[in-house]
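thread: overnight batch results

M.L. [08:02]
morning all. the overnight job finished for the chain we discussed friday. pasting input first so we're all looking at the same thing
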Amino acid sequence: MRNTGPSTLSAPVHVAVGIVVDPSGRVLITRRPDHVHQGGRWEFPGGKLEPGEDIRAAIARELREELGIEVVAARPLIRIHHAYADKRVLLDVWRVDGYRGQPDGLEGQPLAWVTPGELGKYAFPAADVPILTALRLPSEYLITGAPADRPELFLARLEAALARGIKLVQLRAKELSEVKLTALYRQAQQVGQRHGVPIVLNADPGLALEVGADGVHLTSRRLLELDRRPLPAEHWVAASCHNEVEVLHACQIGVDFIVISPVCPTPSHRDAPALGWQGLRTLSECANLPVYALGSMTPADLERAWRHGAQGIAAIRALWEPDASKA
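M.L. [08:03]
and the structure it wrote out:
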């Protein structure tokens, strides 16, 4: 994105950012000139909104001016508020999966195509860091159903879910003893490894480290008991949040992503007040990290979740037993 010039700390610079993704899943990044703010670092194309301009129009204009391409398909990815020492920015980040033309650095900027997993090798401005996380995460976050006393059926359902294309899983089995949970997790992790899918464990972080989990999912109670990130950076750390206090605490200790619930009423918690879609939007605005919407979500809710600030949806029934959810 081009340098947007000086700004006061009381007036955030509103920037439209386009994440251009090619058919193979690689992401386009560009290098900032050395003499501008955050010069020499890599970034995603985009720039400051013009007066009265909406986000999609701004992204289309910026990508046309900077890269010579026409946007065909784009959707919201994440919104980020960030304060530098000399300015504040609001990044409105959209994912561009369809475009016409061949991207070229029309302003002389170097370009590079990289996979989401390679983005960590490049130096980005601090405000862009949550974007790197969002690009590594899928739109659907599966929360497993209870294994009961039939682990073979549980593992078969997990295998089927990953074969359908699920790319991120939370193993949630609160009724199991620590010994049985450990045994089940290790079997589930083997399934995940065959498909290249991380399995995060809903458990005490110490147990997650002990079993070599791909990550941990913190309940809101465990979240609030922590004063720092509980696992090293190579592990995923997620958390359940229901209000602004929990969301801000998750950001403070450095979790990677959160699940906000309940967005809509659920059969298992009919009396619990739902946040609603506007509640999801409000909490996602203060998150500055990827957010999944939970609460009677199905894949049909994805576009609505994106429009309200979410990375995507989290679900048990609709993703674990999709045929049953259609009944």
